[in-house]
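ligand=adenosine-5'-triphosphate
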Amino acid sequence: MDDFAVVCRGLTKTFDGEIPAVYDLDLEVREGEILALLGPSGCGKTTTLRLIAGFIRPDAGEIAIAGRMVAGGGRFVPPEKRGVGMVFQEHALFPHLTAAENIAFGLDGKDSSRQIAYLLRLTGLERFGDRYPHELSGGERQRVALARALATKPVLILLDEPFSNLDADRRAQVREDVRAILKATGSTAVFVTHDQEEALFLGDRLAVMDRGRIVQTGAPDEIFHTPQTRFVAEFIGSTDFLPGVVREDGVETEIGLLDQRLDLPPGTEVEVAVRFDDVVFEQSEAGESMVLARHFKGAYNIYRLRLPSGRLLHAMKAHTELIRPGTPVRIRLEPGHPLACYHLGQAVANRK
Ligand code: ATP
């Protein structure tokens, strides 16, 4: 267990109901790694984080932090003895203490002016040490909270939806800052989010959760391009699913043949995961599909298209090419890479 900063084995926690919030969960976090726990509301992300922090006891399973068993086998190390720093979404700063004093609180009263100066510099807050929380922006408060969590030199930082209180335009900058600070300090971090874009940007690795379990872990591009289940594909990256039938030479769909040979017998029904950049369409009087709506995204537009079957599919085009709703169009798949295909909800391998 000691090559990892965190190891969870068979973690299970049930609150009042019969359905466990976390069930038989295995998780490993490498030293220096930022791991994003991602999943829909109620899937057990925060419960997992709180189990690791020691705020709640598991019903079953084990947790080791930096090679030391902190829960399981009759042992339970309390949160303050786990060497873990926490950053919450509401920052939890003391309103009557300045930024520097808030950070000093993390240092437990030790003489620490050099350490505070270092942490203020690290988090880009040199000029704000004397300010009170209400005199700081949301992003600055978030950096104070991170500096306070880092002050104790924890072996692990846990962040629970750390950016959800920030405006959309500020979030991007703050998460870049936070990632840079975590990397500069070589910190190991686990953070919880339901925002896939945030997870893809911030995580070195992602762990996708569904109903108390981790269903897939991997690097961001691996999770994005090869979701192992339909659930993961649906959760990551605005995916449409197109029914298809396996043929010797590809997968037959209602908008043509996908040039991809699957490792399934011909005639098997599958679902093809299609994202808006995998589809090409053009205006055509003879087209059997139709543009229903256009969503302006700035540099490009996303079009909602109705296929001959009535099924909906989304596709993008550069902002320079406008097509009106109501226009008949012809659509084809042109992904330029293999598409993920699913049979009974599970990813299908391509034929070698
Ligand atoms: P969200 O993204 O909405 O914060 P989450 O994935 O973090 O969700 P959890 O907060 O871990 O989900 O909750 C998982 C399940 O456990 C939910 O069904 C929730 O209602 C339940 N739960 C969490 N904490 C408690 C508690 N203290 N008492 C009873 N049930 C709880």
